[in-house]
Prior knowledge:
With 253 residues, the chain is of the alpha/beta class. It has one domain (2-246): Vaccinia Virus protein VP39 (Rossmann fold). 29% of the residues lie in helices and 27% in strands. The protein is built from 10 helices and 11 strands. It has an 8-stranded mixed beta sheet with strand order 1-10-11-9-8-2-3-4. Strands 5-7-6 form a 3-stranded mixed beta sheet. The longest helix is centred in the N-terminal third of the chain and has 11 residues, at 75-85.
Amino acid sequence: MGLRTKIFGKMGFRKRNPIIDLPNKIHHPMVALQGFLSAVETPVVLDVGAYEGQSAVYYRRFFPEARIYSFEPHPEIFNRMVEVTKDDPHVHPFQLAISDSDGRAEFHTSDFPAANSLLPLHDKISHWAPPSLMSKWQSMEVETMRIDTFCAKEGIDHIDCLKSDAQGHDVAVLRGAEGLLRDGRISCVIAEVNVAPHYERQDSMGAMVQLMEGHGYRLFDFFGTCHNTKGQLMWCDLLFVSPDLMKTLHGPF
């Protein structure tokens, strides 16, 4: 999401509570995660929508001992991610699109790669997005896999942090992890949600909250909010915590 934010920032979009290099800042997702996972010696992080590996590098700064599993379906972008993370033996790259089914799916791409998605663009995006986002769209077939399937194959029993930036497909990512969510085997989830229309069939913030609360998870905070010039919320990241983690926190849960 970093590239998208930079480009839209030039158009006057405002990102509030950005992810910046302020580890002592209270309202910051990494501060929250460090507090939640302070007792975990080797955190397991799943990085869905890893793009070119920036998020893996970023998580490594805050969690030096973490095992990071990074997912990117686009072959050229995946290769760049492998290059960026090649010197880190505990970053494990996978050329996969994480979804709610195992198989193959159409992946929509353009010259604006930060917007690549399993979902096609929404017609209404032309009301606010730059023309460059609307041009040169094409599609390719990619492999899809559920998180439940992936973790079973890789022998992962527990995820400390699931980060999802799947461009409108994030609720599907969470549906593909419902086995783990049902058992409370994911401690924290950070997921992007698009509020303004970006993609066809994108799920709402309400759908995400309903799914997570259905498994006992609670919404802890909003981060990375981005607003247009009229103050309308365009997208943001939601942080959810598991039922077991909630028991260790002080607050009106």
